[in-house]
Design brief:
The protein has 4 helices and 12 strands. With 282 residues, it is an alpha+beta fold. Helices cover 32% and strands 29% of the residues. It is elongated, with a radius of gyration of 27 Å.
Length: 282
């Protein structure tokens, strides 16, 4: 402490000069629009260059982790390829009077398109991602988007070479989800407050749910079934309601997401057409 007082005493005039200079600059830039605009322009340019360099360095050091996640994802997909196919009904014997061909491909349900995330937001109540794939690369509106860790969002707009994705961290996001262990189905949404917590609704109190249980996409979702959404961290028993309200931690780290997969449901058009025709018959 004594050394601090000696330092202040020795450089007292210089410190006063620095403080007064800072106050003068603040008043100049704060109360003069021309100088404020000039300062903001220079500051924005400098900040942009620093952020760009920081992002480059950060991206380099994240490569090892990203590659590990990609390897893990590829292994996971290879082990679960059967989940991307809808098996044929084998209860009836079909006799074909022509050359037999491999008909497995017609039952494929999902195709995965890898894409790099080129923009992302987490601080708004309506957060979006931009990915480096568009219509020229097979992306269409309403396609599901997942990461190596779990669910990311849904494609809402597409250009020839890019697409925007409505993040799970969006007030209008709704996903049909279920408990991995017991299968009860509800919906996952976001309240627009904490980007590290999602809300899982409409699970009956008869369900045997507890903290640490995994929540995944259901078979009624636009996502492939069984995709991780998050882990339950809190269960709220609402008075006067037969349902739980659960807070879950997202499986995907939206603060550091770099690569995703856009998922195309090859049977979506057929399903939509069938359901539309059925509604018309009512």
């Amino acid at each position: 402490m004594r050394n601090v007082f000696l330092f202040v005493r020795r450089y007292f005039n210089f410190l006063i000069f620095i403080i007064m200079q800072a106050v003068a600059l603040y008043m100049l830039f704060h109360y003069n629009r021309f100088h404020e605009a000039a300062f903001m322009g220079v500051a924005g340019e400098v900040t942009g260059k620093i952020s760009k360099q920081y992002n480059t360095v950060e991206y380099y050091f994240q490569l090892q982790k990203t590659n590990a996640l990609l390897v893990e994802e590829n292994q996971k997909l290879r082990n679960l390829l059967k989940d991307d196919f809808l098996p044929a009904d084998t209860t009836t014997k079909i006799v074909v009077d022509s050359i037999k061909v491999d008909s497995l491909e017609q039952y494929r349900r999902y195709l995965y398109f890898p894409a790099k995330v080129i923009n992302n937001s987490v601080t708004s109540q309506t957060n979006y991602l931009t990915i480096s794939r568009g219509t020229n690369q097979g992306i269409t509106k309403d396609m599901a988007v997942v990461s190596p860790a779990g669910v990311v969002g849904t494609v809402v707009n597409v250009s020839p070479n890019m697409a925007t994705v409505m993040s799970l961290l969006h007030r209008q996001s709704r996903i049909s989800a279920s408990l991995l262990k017991t299968g009860e189905t509800g919906s996952v949404e976001w309240d627009g407050k904490n980007p590290q917590l999602l809300t899982f609704r409409n699970i009956p109190k008869s369900a045997q749910a507890k903290k640490g249980d995994t929540v995944v996409t259901s078979r009624y979702s636009t996502f492939p079934p069984g995709q991780p959404i998050g882990v339950i961290v809190e269960i709220v028993s609402q008075a006067g309601s037969n349902f739980y309200l659960m807070n879950i931690k997202p499986s995907t780290n939206f603060f550091n997401i770099q690569f995703v997969y856009a998922v195309k449901n090859l049977q979506k058009e057929e399903q939509d057409a069938l359901e539309k025709a059925t509604r018309k018959q009512e």
